[in-house]
Amino acid sequence: MTYFELFDIPVSLQVDAAVVKAKFYELSRKYHPDFFSQATEAEQEEALEKSSLLNKAFKVFTNKDETLKYVLQLKGLIEDEEKYQLSPDFLMEMMELNEALMDAKMESDEAAIANLKSQISNLEIQLYDSIRSIIENYKDGVSTQEALLQVKDYYFKKKYLSRILASLQ
Fold it and tell me: Taking every annotated instance into account, which residue ranges of this chain make up the domain J (predicted)?
């Protein structure tokens, strides 16, 4: 059972947060293990499994990047711990950004660090803008694999930028 099936929502690259939250609370009440204390062992086990699956699904659906990753995994386009090859141009840009970041950190140049954070934020916006229409208009079974591969490229670039931002903390 996929997370989308569990929540009874269509496969989407962006889920409706209000719907997910409401479904989560509804299903939490339905499958909470405490309500199965008098049930058979098989029913208790099923409730525990569904409750665990529900929590994992909610964690994925409340994180936009994890939702993208999950759909790409469902479509067989991404694997756990995949070593995705980013474009040389992107990697060169990241190398220059990392060098500037190291220089700014070594010099404790807060203004330069703030400027680099701003550059990264702008890059994230540009990256998202390039795939916004794919994410917003995604239709399971209709959207092309080529479109999903563009989302995959975005996902890995965003992940790279997130690691750089984390190093600034």
Answer: 2-76
- 46-91: per-residue pLDDT in tens? 888 899 999 999 999 999 999 999 999 999 999 888 899 999 999 9
What are the pLDDT digits (tens) for 95-108? Answer: 999 999 999 999 99
**From CA 123, how far away is CA 133, in angstroms rounded?**
17
How many angstroms separate the Cα of 160 from the Cα of each of 15, 91, 150, 156? 23, 10, 16, 6
User: What average pLDDT does the structure give for the chain?
Assistant: 93
7 CB neighbour count, 10 Å cutoff: 20
Strand (E) or helix (H) holding 156: helix 145-167
Q: Does domain 3-62 have CATH number 1.10.10.10?
A: no
User: How distant, in Å, are the alpha carbons of 32, 47, 111, 132, 152 from that of 69?
Assistant: 27, 26, 34, 16, 8
- Find the distance separating the first CA and the last CA of the chain, reported in whole Å: 38
